Each structure stands twice: as structure tokens, then as C-alpha cells.
Amino acid sequence: xxxxxxxxxxxxxxxxxxxxxxxxxxxxxxxxxxxxxxxxxxxxxxxxxxxxxxxxxxxxxxxxxxxxxxxxxxxxxxxxxxx
Length: 83
Known about the structure:
This protein is α+β, with helices and mostly antiparallel strands. The chain has helices at residues 12-17, 19-26, 46-70, 76-80, and strands at 8-11, 31-35, 38-43.
């Protein structure tokens, strides 16, 4: 059985009946969309999605920066800027 990474969930049929009420129900949290009790998709509020994308981007940039620092191409100060 797959894990569900949301506190709230709806069935696909519920989503088809009233998408706007499902989005309203989600509030500021993700909501799992289930198909036969298995997560098929997640509805994530736009602010949450945007924050996740920024965090992911920061992680990717951090890893790329660590590789460059390891090769002595740039310094930590160059990566972080003069604080």
C-alpha cells in the first residue's frame, strides 16, 4: 500500500462533482486525490507549490555550489554574496 502524504483526501468522483469545494476544503494544505483508495494526484495551494519550487531550486543551487567550491572555482562568499 502506498503512503498518503496529506492530512485530507478526496475521491476522484468528489473532485469531479465540485472542484471548487475541494480546493476550498484544502485551505492552505495539500489534499490527496484518491482513485480506489490509492493516491492518484495531489492538489496543492499555489502558495505552497511556489514555496516548494523555491526550496527545490535552493537545494539544487546549493548542491551545484558545493561541487564548484570543492573544485575551488568559487568561494562560499561568492555563492552567498557579501552578507
